Amino acid sequence: MKPRRSFLILMVWVLIVSVAWASPPTAVSADAPPEDVVASADPIPFDPFDDPSGDSYGDKDLMLQAVADPIVGFNRAMFVFNDKLYFWVLKPVASGYRVVVPTPVRVSVKNFFFNLLGPVRFVNCLFQGKWRSAEGEFGRFVVNSTAGCLGLFNLVSDKPQFNPPEEDFGQTLGYYAVGNGFYIIWPLFGPSTLRDTVGSIGDWALNPVSFMQLVNVDAGELTSTTTNVTAYSVRVVNDTSFRIGDYETLKNAALDPYEAFRNAYIQNRLSKIAQ
């Protein structure tokens, strides 16, 4: 079966499952001052923890319970697997990488991958009708892709208009009231929800490198896979080199690290969708 046909079948199947598992729309309580709302040029996104009765949830624990965790056994096993992978492989590699590669080079590598994903953020801004954010993403991508040497240098980092909140397809689905489904931890990739998993597939397809491979169905499958894996590995190692110690700090401070990371992930996603 051709790669493009397989990808389309996978997308249809996952979307069907997503609808079946989607939790009913509830939404984040809005505590932002009115002037912040008036100043925003983008439409206010759907709030996934809104109480239809008009009363917002005051208890953060009740909010977090809205994301089901029916496969907790699998998730805890994957949490342990990823934890061991971090301490036994990723941390040592990232630590050595940080020693060998100077900080300016690592910053340029980070800038390159961030710029490479500019079209993903731009398209998701358009999907959500956030025209000013889309304009900022487009402008930053053009400037950094040209004068910034293919994104190695972020020449507009100090200009707020070119640094809108980051958007992805999972956030776009949340904006349009698609429920989280259930919580899931993927080996290697870490925490997610069913909605964000579908979103990550959409973001992968919008990635310029992946998009070109999908269009060119005659490209060698092994070469494409090797390119994607290599690029992803370099990006993960490079990003980890900037935050070694953060994972350990949160884990050591938690009574139950699994629940701490699950709650942190859900709260972070809620805050991003509410932007």
Can you give a write-up of this model?
By secondary structure, the chain is mostly helical. The chain has 2 domains: 65-100 and 178-275, no CATH class; 103-167. 63% of the residues lie in helices and 3% in strands. It contains 13 helices and 2 strands, in the order H-H-H-H-H-H-H-H-E-E-H-H-H-H-H. A two-stranded antiparallel sheet has the order 1-2. A hairpin with a 3-residue loop joins strand 1 and strand 2. It is globular and about 50 Å long. Residues 1-65 have low confidence and may be disordered.
By secondary-structure content and strand pairing, the structural class works out as mainly alpha
Share in helix: 55-70%
Largest sheet: 2 strands, antiparallel
Low-confidence stretches: 1-65
Q: Average pLDDT across residues?
A: 79
Spatial extent as radius of gyration: 20 Å
Looking at the structure, what is the overall shape? globular
Give the end-to-end Cα distance, rounded to a whole number of Å.
41 Å
Number of domains: 2
Main-sheet strand order equals: 1-2
Strand coverage percent:
under 5%
Count every helix, treating DSSP H or I runs of 4 or more residues as helices.
13
